[in-house]
What does this fold into?
Amino acid sequence: MVTETAAPIRGTDAYWRQRRLAFALIQNLERAIRIRNQAPMYVGSADDPIENIGPWDRVCQLQDRARLHPLVLETLAAQKRLTLLTA
It folds into this structure.
């Protein structure tokens, strides 16, 4: 029986697979933050505005996922970009 540990051994296929997932998650988070920063606060007509919370919710979801991924945390810490998790 083979079980996968929380931290794969560096250099293995599992490690590189996790590393690719980590970088993809960081890239998605950066893209979501850019979209959120350009999104209007309200959509709809001036008579009936609707608060546009979708982009903010998406960033929060991705930040929560990133905080749970050890390689994302390791990568962002090494790059001194942990502020992405609170932006």
Remarks:
- The beta strands are 42-44, 49-51.
- The longest helix spans residues 13-38.
- The mean pLDDT is 90.
